[in-house]
Amino acid sequence: MSKEVEKDDVTGTETTGHEWDGIKELDTPMPRWWLWTMYGTIIWSIGYWIVMPAWPLVSSYTEGFLGYSSRGALEQELEEANEAQAGDRAALVTTELEDIKNNDQLYQFALRGGKSAFAVNCSQCHGSGAAGAPGFPNLNDDDWLWGGSVDQIYETIKYGIRSDHDDTRIGEMPAFLTNEMLDRSQINDVTEYVLSLSDTREDKEAVARGEVVFQENCASCHGENAKGNREFGAPNLTDAIWFYGKDKDVILRTISRGRNNVMPAWVDRLDDATIRQLALYVHSLGGGE
Amino acid sequence: MVDSSVENIDVRPVNKKENRSLFAKREKIQPKKARGSFRRLKWVIMGVTLAIYYITPWIRWDRGEGGPDQAVLVDLARERFYFFFIEIWPQEVYYITGLLILAAISLFLVTSLFGRAWCGYSCPQTVWTDLFIFVERMVEGDRNARLKLDKAPMSASKLSKRVLKHTIWIIIGVLTGGAWVFYFADAPTLLVELFTLQAPVVAYSSVALLTATTYVFGGLMREQVCTYMCPWPRIQGAMVDEDTLTVTYHGARGEPRGPHKKNESWEGRGHCIDCNQCVAVCPMGIDIRDGLQLECITCALCIDACNDVMDKVNLPRGLISYDTHEGQFDSNPERKLKLRFIRPRTIAYGAILALVGAIMLFTLLNRSVLDVNVIRDRNPLFVTLSDGSIRNGYTVKILNKVHETRQFRIDVEGIAGMTAWLEVSGETDRPLLVTVPADALSSYKLYVSAPAENLEEKSMDIDVIVTDVDGTERDVQETSFKGPEK
Hints:
heterodimer; A: 289 residues; two-stranded antiparallel ribbon; 11 helices; 3 strands; B: 486 residues; alpha+beta; 3 domains; 15 helices
């Protein structure tokens, strides 16, 4: 299988034997150093196999003498990040919550940490934008069941609401129908009254009857003027914000069956610095008092 | 004579040694020193370009508060690029794009007019290789001495010359890399840090890397870089045409070439006496008499060499000269050079240059020193407050690009009864005043609320207006205010 090697007259270089329309392709040699560079990379790769993780084995892999792993590198970076934050986190715990705002650097640190802690721990119920859902309060607005100062928010997060912690915030909305405290017509009347506080209702008589029911059964928690009481987490019934929704059906159900949602206590799950970050972050969402 | 008793077989070794290797062994080029006007020009350009490279980082420029006083500085840590009166923030990187376009088109224009003038005179590879060859000549002598030294067996004298040469090369490399890092930090500070071992690791590693590349490219690889690594020789083919000035051997005048004895007649023969001086001086190791070729960087040293020879044999200069394509077919030694600088190609390049330059200049002169970005909160879109009004949240970013602290007032317009407040200061402060430090970006959380009854649509246009309290600058950003479905 002898092959005729053809040399180009002008350059003296061999051709590859490929020809297109009379134009022949030269087989111009590569420079030698280029070849050595390739050998160099091969030798480098052998060294790389020895010091770095390289070959997959049946149930593990060759780890390499340097002991590198990307998981280990991540752990190290996290450790470094924690170390870098240690000073700020300590300052968060020792500084009064109200004073943190005066230290811009510390405040920004708190907001950023709070934002990420919120996304991890709180957004499942309150939503990623903290806008809430029926039964889970919107944390952006200026209506607070248990108080909107940063200290009050801090306490709510720390001990929760109706949680299993001893220091939890407790308040109860009784089930007036289930417990036979009121009958259906009374509940309808008091619902009409509650709705009349923020809207005009047509059935004026029902509203008048409802007011009497309200003063006897509800005013102890929601107040005579129905503006709520933060001691029991009783909502203000006169404003534009409704915890579970402002449809009559929803309010009827709330009064009939009661409402006792739970906010967990975070004191056992998060460290104090994180809870403080969360309190400041929630306070910064626009409704903080 | 072939012995008739032995049959001559027509066969060739398929695996003959010289045909075996696919890789070419590099032969070292030992360029001879050239003398003449182009060599002098190259010395001057080398001096100027090296001076620019070494002096630039040391030029000072007063920028006022918060700004570095270095004229040319790439501040990676603070994300700024300073070039005399120009100061570029990261989001203005299109100025760099513009500069690169200008550089590329200038290169196209110069190449179409004068061939590879960039390659031959001012490319760093050429300048540093020239410098390295100069050092080589100072230490080991000119071409003949170097060839002899290469062949000589190792001796104390050869070793000392080699060591000296490589030492000087490495020192040049260190100085090259050393100057490079000054473009990225305050030069006087960094110089002290470098010598007191206080400089950042990246400074030392940059110096080491550039030392290595300078030494390898300028000392060892030289023409290999231009021929095999650089893409420009390939691209330049598209820029050169028959009116481009390139280093040209006037073949019609020179051929047929051959040795010439004194007083011999020049009748019936060419002017090239085949002395190979043009080959000996070529740093690329080519023969210009083969015509325009990929490897030629048009350094014009062969012109100097040939002119020298022409003087000696009493012939007119210019057997090799800068000429256009047709020059190689003109046998007249007194040939008048016909230059056509203005042609469609150069007009096109010139027009693009002027256009890009004008756009750059315009944008640079009209560059605003106040930038405002208003970003609406999208989650939640809006919040209903207890009194029934609707609140929207915005992040207002104010970029103060001057070197003094400025105070700005933030106003909001668009919906009747609208109130605005900043998250940090609270609702009581009126008007909304913020202080942005010199040469900095500050970000503020702005809340705006409006009575629900004044919202005519579920999305209304509002303006966020940022005004320089002590100046005249004002930036109006249009954004929207969202409310519930109507």
